[in-house]
Fold:
Amino acid sequence: MNILINKYNIFDFATSELSHSAFFSWLIKQIDPKSYYSLEVREKGLELVNECLKTHKIKPINGLGDIDSAIVERELSHIDITAFIYTKSGRKIGIIIENKVGAQESRKNQLTDYFKEGTKLIEEHFKKAESEKIFIYLKSDYDFDDPLTRFDSNGNVVTTNFKKIDWREIYKIFEKSKSSEDSILQSYACWIKKKYDSIENKLNVSHLLLPNEGIKLLKNDHIGQVHLIKEIFAKLFGDKKPFCGKKDESGYHRWYYLSDLYLKLGTDKGSPWSELWFSEESDGLNYFYRLQPNVPEPLLHARLGYWGSENLIAEKQGLYNKYINLIYKHGLSNLKSKFKFNPNNNESTLSAFNLIGASIEELRRIEELHLDFLSSVRE
Structure:
């Protein structure tokens, strides 16, 4: 088959959530015995359905021969995809899919509302007969937080009944379809492969620290910036996973790892930047770690700063001097940038160093030193 389809891929143009939902709806519909599509396409549809069942630890459908009928609906009660499947062995399966290509949830209770509405749709369709209910959050891009959790009105973390299928699992489903004889299937397989490679490159620390390619990835991309911050602070993060996300009063996204530790992203207007924020203390010495492009030079600098009101200038100046003396005492040679303290700004840069050319081990050593220093001055 002509592989030129890879160069002019329809999914490079059909990038919206609606377009991708249409593809998945079409694919699931092909498991119906009345489908006239190729066996390859029909089996891929069943593989996707069985992956949905697998996430809920429900036994798979035993082949296309067991399918009696499949009904697929779009935008029922605003839900992206709703599928009702009958098997010859007597199973009734309802699948609710919320599909996201790159967007975050449009509102904080969206999955909770879709679970209630989806349950109602499935029970009404099967006339309250016994059925298997499957709720899937399908995401073909990177998530900074756990989309299946949210904060309730009391500030507690609650979990939805959805299960997630992410870009890695989607890629596994379609990996072998890059050479498919079906043009639609092949197009999507090539698109998800490109998406998979792009995200994995941004999560590759050694690649991020390359002088040219790394800068290109980091300069305008939150995924690489956030991942590098997490790698530098590996001791702090450990095996912690993000459990919840929300917008602050200024509309910026926060992704929490602990109640007092979160990542914060700026807007995509101008020069993007990413920050790691620590606990907000009553003494006003809130501190954060920022990755930010240095214009006009194509270099990326890491900046660690305190945030506080002007009446804390003297105290911050004292802490700044102590920290700089401590760094020099340890002889950390990769600190190349000049230290500055600007008393006219609430934001004060404590350290700035060129990431390019420095190893992760060196960067971790600086940040561990700084965290130890902060712990000592707060005691």
User: Anything to note?
Assistant: The first strand starts at residue 67 and ends at 76. Residues 183-202 form the longest helix (20 residues). Confidence is low (pLDDT under 50) at residues 1-5, 295-301, 306-311, 333-356. Residues 3-200 form one domain.
